[in-house]
Amino acid sequence: MAERPSRSTPTLVSLLLCDQLIDDRFTNKKSAIGMFNTIISPTMPTVIQQVTVLASLTELSGQSIVELRLVRDADNGLIFSGNGRVDAPNPLAVVDLIFTLQGIQLPTPGQYAMELWSSDDLLGRRRFQLFYRPPTPAQRHQDQTEPPI
């Protein structure tokens, strides 16, 4: 009976959430701007205009399929999912994946997580909290009296 070649699972080196990412094409250095673990919103449900996820992987063998998921921790409800192929020049290389998500709707306050998967293997997750903080009467009054920009 022939043995199947073993498939190695990539190793997640880091998983960051931030407002934006600067990728310097000359040095290949990345700068995460506005890293966060908490979002405070004056409305529910709320829409996150933009979130950038930086995932660094190593021990990739050739081409791999990776999937990014946004889930609600309370019930593991799937909010968003997207996948794609990743190429690694060799298994020792560290490959940086940049995901920029826009217009993500979060239905309720609570804990959420970005998860990175390869096939059926969870490589890692990064949790963040969403808090609801309605505007105070003074803030509502100020919003109504300020002229538009």
Topology of this protein?
Blueprint: E1 11-23, E2 30-35, E3 38-41, E4 46-58, E5 63-72, E6 77-87, E7 95-106, E8 110-118, E9 121-132, H1 137-145
Parallel strand pairs: 3-9
Antiparallel strand pairs: 1-2, 1-4, 4-7, 5-6, 5-8, 8-9
What does this structure look like?
The chain is mainly beta. It has a single domain (11-140), classed as Sandwich (Immunoglobulin-like), CATH 2.60.40.1930. It has one helix at 137-145; strands at 11-23, 30-35, 38-41, 46-58, 63-72, 77-87, 95-106, 110-118, 121-132. The strands form 2 sheets. It has a 5-stranded mixed sheet with strand order 3-9-8-5-6, with no helix packed on it. Strands 2-1-4-7 form a 4-stranded antiparallel sheet, with no helix packed on it.
Helix and strand run:
EEEEEEEEEH
- Backbone shape: elongated
**Could you give the count of β-strands?**
9
Strand content: over 45%
Characterize the main sheet.
5 strands, mixed
Q: Could you tell me the radius of gyration in angstroms? A: 19 Å
The order of strands across the largest sheet is: 3-9-8-5-6
Distance between the termini: 72 Å
Mean pLDDT: 90
Instruction: Tell me roughly what share of residues is in helical segments.
Output: under 10%
Fourth-level CATH superfamily: Macroglobulin (MG2) domain
CATH architecture: Sandwich
**What's the CATH class label?**
Mainly Beta
Counted up, domains total 1
**Residue runs with pLDDT of under 50 for 5 or more positions:** 1-6
Total of helices:
1
**Would you tell me which CATH topology applies?**
Immunoglobulin-like
Structural class: mainly beta
